[in-house]
Amino acid sequence: MIELEGLPELVDPVLIAAFEGWNDAGEASSGVIAHLETEWKATELASFDPEDYYDFQVTRPIVEMGDGLTRSITWPTTRLSVARPPGSNRDVVLLRGIEPNMRWRSFCEEIILVCRELGVELAVLLGALLNDSPHTRPVPIVGAATDEGLARAINLELTRYEGPTGIVGVLQQAFGTAGLPAVSLWASVPHYVAQPPNPKATLALLSRMEDLLDIPMPLGDLAEEARAWEHGVDELAAQDTEVADYVRELEERKDATQLPEASGDAIAAEFERYLRRRDRGSDS
């Protein structure tokens, strides 16, 4: 169990969470949390006892060398940290971990208990899945919410996925059962280039969260990294005619189903994002 004594009093906190593993194609969603921890200089709050939730023969600890003589063990776990984003008047709790191997319901209950103690008002759960989306087009973001009203309020394109789920899906349902609003956002990662990292998908999740939370998201070098990633995939595809033909087929299929009004909405959202960033820059 997490030690709850000494947790700080936060201002209107929101939780942003992601898990490595099945829910994290291209490490796009865990990459969001790692990026925000660095950019916001997050302070670690607590970590889960790995003995409770991990099978160390499945998710093995990592041995590292310190000064060339001493060795340390890093155990698989889930960690909580907190940050106050520049330009925001609310705190953000960041949760990053590895999908647990066992006792998922107890794991979710513990997360909800901590969120109640911290006063979390909304949970945003991030995931990434392999899909047949072309790497040359904007990254599709779909999601789910604990109730239809919340989904409509944030203009969320709902996923229609049915099938095996991971800890993100289980945790979202647990939040809903506990009466805490939660939203999950899923980025589509091209299945033909699944190896991490995928900065383009990470950037897409960050941009969608900025719209959702109205909190300025630091992009750092992600835009440049996303362009370099796409250029690199272009070069690899060009070397294999079958892959190049497949990408063109995906592009044609995507373009044929892309409604004009959907494109207009995307352009409008990007323009509003630009205006918000410009206004924040002029205030500083």
UniProtKB/TrEMBL annotation:
It comes from the Bacteria. It holds the Pfam family PAC2. Gene3D superfamilies: PAC-like subunit. Signal peptide: none annotated. Transmembrane segments: none annotated. InterPro entries: Proteasome_assmbl_chaperone_2, PSMG2_sf, Rv2714-like. SUPFAM superfamilies: Cgl1923-like. This is Carboxylate--amine ligase. The lineage of its organism: Bacteria, Bacillati, Actinomycetota, Actinomycetes, Streptosporangiales.
